[in-house]
Write a structure and sequence with these properties.
The protein is built from 30 helices and 31 strands. By secondary structure, it is α+β, with helices and mostly antiparallel strands. The chain has a four-stranded antiparallel β-sheet, with no helix packed on it. The protein has a four-stranded antiparallel β-sheet with strand order 5-6-7-8. A four-stranded antiparallel β-sheet has the order 9-10-11-12, with no helix packed on it. A hairpin with an 8-residue loop joins β6 and β7. α17 runs parallel beside α19 and α29 runs antiparallel to α30. The longest helix is centred in the last third of the chain and has 45 residues. The termini are far apart.
Length: 901
C-alpha cells in the first residue's frame, strides 16, 4: 500500500508498519496496526490540508472483524517516536460485518465517508480530529459493493462521488438530507477512479477511461485493457492492467478484486502504463515484477511499489528528449502536438513542421510536404521553401505556398511578383482573376501586383487593382500611357479631389492637353475655381480660430499648372480668361495672399499672350463681343479694367518691349501718374493726348502746364497752336507757377522757338499792369508803416524825457474818488492802493494787452533761433525773397547777444 503528500511518501507493509520517506529518502517507520495476528493496513490516505494520515486496519484472517480507522498527525510522527492516533468511532451499518472497501475525507476532516462491501455508504460528521460531536448516518444502500469514494469541496458545497461495481453516483453532503444522483449505470473496480485537478471524477473501465462532473458524463479516452489501479501525475494517468485470474499462476484469494463479473488480482497487474492525456498517447509501458501493489507521486516523480518488495522510480524526460525520441521514429505529427501542449513557442513548433516537410520531401511526397511547409510561414525563410519548388513541374505547389504566404501577410513584393509571374507564365487568367477578385483582405503588395500585371499585358486586372485600392496614379498611367484612353482618364479625375487633380495633372497634363485640349482645359478651370474657393474657406476658418485650423494638404494653385500649356498658348489664354471672368472679374473684396499672387500672375500672363498675338479658342464669358476683338484690343481692355490687379512693373516691361504705347498710357493712367503720362505724350508728340490730359487733370495739377509750355517752346512746328499756348500761360499766371521773367526765358530762350511777341502780348501786358499795381500798393503800405513808426517813436521819447500829468480823480477799478495812498500808471490809469492788492507793477486794465505784446516778442525771439525751419521754408518756397523779407521783419538780430571772446 502506498500514498503521498506533504513532500512525503508513505508505504505500508504486510506487517502493519508504515514507512515515511522524505526527499532525501530518509525512512522513519512506525507500527500503525495492532499486535493481534492477521492485522494489516488495507487502506491509507494522506489529507494534505491538515497533514493527517488516515489508515484502515483490518484482520485479513477473520472475515467477521470490524475495520479500525485511525488518524495520525504527520508532524508528530516525524518529531516523536510514540504517537497515539485518533480512532474514528463509528457503528457497522448492519449486524453482519462487511469489509471496508472505500474511504474518503474532506480536507478539514469535518466529514468522512465509508464504503462497505455490503453496499452501504456511511457518512460521519463533526469534529472528528477531537472525537467530539460526531454524527453518523447511512447515506445510501446499494446491492453492489462500494468500490470508490471521493470528496470534492468548494466554498459553498461538499460533493461526494461514489462508485460501485455497477453504478456511478454523486451526493451533495452539504446538508443532512441528500439524495443520490446516478451519473451512469456502470461502475468500476476498487482503486480505478480518482479526482483530477479540475475536480472531475475519472473512472477507468476495461474499454476506456471516462470523465464525470456532478452534471453528467464528459469526454472519454479509449484504452482497452483490464484495469485494476488508476492514479494521476500532472497530466498523466497511471494505470495498472492485468489478465484474467485464470492466467495468473500465483493468485492469492485475499488479493482478488471483482470487476464486471470477472476476477482480477494484484498479482496479475504486471503491466504498468503511463497515458499522456494531453497528447493522447501512451508515454510508457513496462512490466512490474510481482504486480503493482501501490503508486505514489511526489517530488516530480513516480514511485511504484512492486509485489516482490521493489520500489521502482520513474522520472519524466524533458520535452527535448521526448521530441528527440519522436524524431527518431518519424512521428512528427505527434511531436507537433506534444510541443504545442508543452507551451513551445510558435517558432519552435514551426521548426518541427519544417523537419516533417523535409522528411516528406525526401520521400517525394511533395504535396503533403508543402502542406507542412505552409505551417512554417512567418518563422522559416520563404526562400528555403521556394527554392525547393522552383521546378516548372511543381509550380502548382509553389503557387499554393505563395498564396498562403500572401494570406498570412508575410509576402514581400518579390513574392507577389513571383506568384503573379507563375500565373502569367501559365497564362492562367482564371486563377489570376480569382486571386485578384476573391481576396477579402488583400494581403499583398498592391503596387507590385499592378506592376507585374501591367508588364504582362493584363491591363484589365491592373486597372481593377488600381481602382480597388485607390492607386490613382497607377490607374491614370494605365489609362493614358498604356490604353491611350484620355477621355476615361479625365472622367476619372473629375471624381477626385482638387489636390489630387493638381498632382496628377502635373504628371499627365501635357499628354491630356495634346489629345483633348478643350476637355482638359475645362477640367482645369473647374478645379482651379474650386481650389480657390476652398483656400478662401480655410483662410476664413483659420482667421476665426486664431490661426489653428489645419490645412489638409497642398491645395491647387494656378501657378503650378500654367506650365502645362507650354505647347498650347491659345488654350492657356482660354484657361486664364475663364478663371479671371469667373473668379476675379467683379471681385472687390480682399483676397488671401496666395490667391492674390495667383491673380497677379494670371493677369500678367494673359497680357503677355495678347501682346504676342495669341487668340483664345473659347468664347470669353465676360464680353459678348470678345470674338470680334483683336488681341491688341483685348490687351488694351485688360489694362483699362479697373479690377485687373496685375504687377505694374511687369506689365510696363511687356508693353514697352512690344512697343504698345496705348498700353503704357493705360498703365500710367491706371496708376494715376499724370506727369509720366504727359512725358509719354511729349515724347511721342501726341498733341491731342496732351490736350485731353491737360483738360482732365490740369485743374488739379497745374504744374503740368509748365511742362507743356517748355514743350511748346522747344517745338516750333507746334508753336502755332495759340489756344494751347494761351491756356498754359493763363494757368501759370492764375496759380503763379512761374515768374514772368522765367516764362519769357522759357518762350524765347531757344533759337528755334517760334513764339512771337503777338502770341504773348496779352500775358506780358497783364503782368506789367499787375506789377505796377503791386508796386503802388507796396509804396502806400510803406508810407503807412513809416508814419506809425514816427508816431510811436515820438511817444516813447516823450515818456522818457518829459513829465506826465495825471488828472484822473477816480479810481479806475472801483470808480470811487481817489484818496491817498494812490497809484498812477503811465497809461494814465489811477487806482487806490487798496484796490491793486498784489497785482504788481502792471496796470490791471492794460495787463492783457501788455501780455499779448510780450508773447509776440517771445515768439519772435524763439523763431529767430529756428534756423532749420527757416531754411526748409526757404527751400520749398516759390518766392525766396519774400521768405527772407518776412524773416527780417521779425527782427531776428535784435535778440542776438554778444559773447565775449
Amino acid at each position: 500500500m502506498a500514498s503521498n503528500g506533504g513532500d512525503l511518501v508513505f508505504l505500508a507493509d504486510s506487517g502493519g508498519y508504515v514507512h515515511v520517506l522524505n526527499r532525501s529518502f530518509v525512512v522513519r517507520s512506525f507500527m500503525a496496526a495492532s499486535d493481534a495476528p492477521g492485522m494489516r493496513i488495507t487502506q491509507m490516505l494522506h489529507i494534505h490540508q491538515t497533514r493527517t494520515l488516515l489508515t484502515v486496519e483490518e484482520n485479513v484472517s477473520a472475515a467477521t472483524s470490524r475495520p479500525a480507522i485511525k488518524l495520525w498527525s504527520v508532524d508528530r510522527l516525524l518529531r516523536q517516536s510514540d504517537v497515539q492516533p485518533v480512532t474514528v468511532k463509528y457503528q457497522q451499518p448492519t449486524t453482519t460485518p462487511y469489509p471496508l472497501t472505500a474511504v474518503s475525507a474532506t480536507p478539514s476532516i469535518s466529514q468522512i465517508a465509508l464504503g462497505f462491501a455490503g453496499g452501504h455508504i456511511v457518512l460521519i460528521r463533526g469534529n472528528i480530529l477531537k472525537s467530539r460531536s460526531t454524527k453518523q448516518r447511512t447515506l445510501h444502500v446499494t446491492p453492489e459493493p462500494i468500490t470508490n469514494l471521493h470528496f470534492v469541496t468548494n466554498s459553498t458545497n461538499v460533493t461526494l462521488f461514489a462508485t460501485t461495481t455497477a453504478q456511478t453516483m454523486v451526493f451533495d453532503t452539504t446538508n443532512n438530507k441528500s439524495d443520490p444522483v446516478t451519473l451512469e449505470e456502470r461502475g468500476c473496480g476498487i482503486g480505478c477512479s480518482l479526482i483530477n485537478e479540475d475536480d472531475e471524477l475519472i473512472v477507468a473501465r476495461d474499454e476506456a477511461i471516462y470523465t464525470y462532473t456532478a452534471d453528467g458524463r464528459g469526454p472519454c479516452f479509449a484504452f482497452d485493457a483490464p484495469k485494476v489501479l488508476l492514479r494521476r501525475f500532472k497530466h498523466y494517468l497511471l494505470l495498472a492492467t492485468a489478465a484474467p485470474s485464470s492466467m495468473a499462476p500465483n493468485m492469492a484469494p485475499d488479493d482478488e478484486r471483482v470487476v464486471d463479473e470477472q476476477v482480477y488480482s494484484f498479482n496479475d497487474a504486471t503491466t504498468f502504463t503511463i497515458l499522456d492525456t494531453k497528447n493522447k498517447l501512451v508515454a510508457y509501458t513496462g512490466v512490474v515484477s510481482g504486480g503493482v501493489r501501490g503508486v505514489a507521486t511526489e517530488w516530480g516523480s513516480i514511485f511504484v511499489l512492486g509485489g516482490h518488495g521493489t520500489l521502482d522510480f520513474y522520472s519524466e524526460k524533458d520535452l527535448l528528449e521526448r521530441l528527440d525520441i519522436l524524431y527518431r521514429q518519424n512521428l512528427y505529427p505527434l511531436a507537433v502536438k506534444m510541443a504545442q501542449n508543452g507551451n513551445y513557442d510558435m517558432a519552435s513548433v514551426a521548426g518541427i513542421y519544417k523537419r516533417y516537410g523535409d522528411w516528406l520531401y525526401s520521400k517525394d511526397d511533395f504535396d503533403t510536404a508543402m502542406s507542412q511547409y505552409m505551417q512554417t510561414i512567418g518563422f522559416v525563410e520563404p526562400s528555403y521553401v521556394i527554392r525547393k519548388y522552383l521546378d516548372a513541374q511543381r509550380l502548382g505547389n509553389l503557387t499554393s505556398y505563395l498564396q498562403e504566404l500572401h494570406t498570412a501577410g508575410m509576402a514581400t513584393s518579390d513574392h507577389t511578383t513571383l506568384l503573379l509571374n507563375c500565373y502569367t507564365k501559365l497564362r492562367d487568367e482564371e486563377r489570376l482573376n480569382q486571386f485578384i477578385h476573391t481576396q477579402e483582405d488583400y494581403q499583398f503588395d498592391v503596387d507590385t501586383a499592378i506592376h507585374v500585371c501591367r508588364q504582362a499585358g493584363f491591363y484589365e486586372q491592373a486597372l481593377y487593382l488600381a481602382d480597388k485600392f485607390s492607386k490613382t496614379g497607377m490607374y491614370l498611367k494605365l489609362k493614358i500611357e498604356d490604353q491611350d484612353d484620355i477621355q476615361a482618364a479625365l472622367e476619372y479625375m473629375r471624381k477626385l479631389g482638387d489636390m489630387d487633380i493638381s498632382a496628377y495633372m502635373a504628371e499627365f497634363g501635357r499628354r491630356c492637353l495634346s489629345s483633348l485640349p478643350r476637355e482638359t482645359t475645362e477640367l482645369l478651370i473647374d478645379v482651379c475655381i474650386k481650389g480657390m474657393d476652398a483656400r478662401a474657406v480655410v483662410a476664413a476658418e483659420r482667421s476665426s480660430t486664431n490661426g489653428v485650423t489645419p490645412i489638409g494638404g497642398q491645395l491647387l494653385s494656378m501657378r503650378r499648372i500654367q506650365h502645362l500649356f507650354a505647347d498650347q498658348p491659345d488654350w492657356l489664354a482660354a484657361f486664364l480668361e475663364q478663371v479671371i471672368a469667373r473668379r476675379w472679374q467683379q471681385r472687390d473684396s480682399d483676397l488671401i495672399e496666395e490667391e492674390d499672387a495667383d491673380m497677379k500672375s494670371a493677369w500678367n500672363t494673359l497680357l503677355e499672350l495678347y501682346l504676342c498675338g495669341v487668340e483664345s479658342p473659347l468664347q470669353d464669358p465676360g464680353s459678348s463681343s470678345a470674338s470680334k476683338q483683336t488681341p491688341t484690343e483685348r490687351a488694351l481692355d485688360l489694362l483699362r479694367n479697373p479690377h485687373a490687379n496685375m504687377d505694374w512693373e511687369r506689365a510696363y516691361i511687356l508693353c514697352a518691349s512690344n512697343g504698345f504705347i496705348e498700353g503704357i498710357a493705360a498703365l500710367y493712367e491706371q496708376r494715376g501718374d499724370v506727369a509720366a503720362l504727359l512725358d509719354l505724350f511729349i515724347e511721342h508728340d501726341d498733341l491731342p493726348g496732351m490736350r485731353k490730359l491737360l483738360d482732365k487733370h490740369g485743374g488739379d495739377q497745374p504744374d503740368l502746364y509748365i511742362k507743356a509750355l517748355h514743350y511748346l517752346a522747344r517745338n516750333p512746328q507746334l508753336a502755332d497752336n495759340e489756344e494751347l499756348l494761351s491756356d498754359c500761360l493763363s494757368t501759370i499766371e492764375k496759380h503763379n507757377l512761374m515768374s514772368p521773367l522765367r516764362v519769357l526765358q522759357a518762350l524765347g530762350g531757344s533759337e528755334q522757338s517760334g513764339v512771337t511777341l503777338g502770341m504773348v502780348r496779352g500775358y506780358i501786358m497783364r503782368q506789367i499792369n499787375a506789377t505796377t499795381t503791386r508796386i503802388q500798393e507796396n509804396k502806400a503800405a510803406i508810407d503807412t508803416y513809416a508814419s506809425k513808426y514816427a508816431a510811436h517813436s515820438e511817444k516813447m521819447d516823450t515818456l522818457k524825457s518829459k513829465p506826465v500829468v495825471f488828472q484822473s480823480t477816480k479810481c479806475t477799478s472801483c470808480m470811487a474818488p481817489l484818496d491817498l495812498p494812490s497809484v498812477h500808471f503811465l497809461c494814465k490809469h489811477s487806482y487806490h492802493q487798496r484796490c491793486l492788492g498784489d497785482v504788481g507793477d502792471s496796470c490791471p486794465r492794460c495787463q492783457a494787452q501788455n501780455q499779448k505784446l510780450e508773447d509776440q516778442r517771445r515768439v519772435q525771439e524763439t523763431s529767430a533761433k529756428q534756423h532749420d525751419a527757416f531754411f526748409e521754408k526757404l527751400q520749398h518756397a516759390d518766392d525766396g525773397f519774400d521768405v527772407i523779407a518776412s524773416w527780417f521783419a521779425k527782427s531776428p538780430f535784435s535778440f542776438t547777444k554778444l559773447v565775449d571772446q
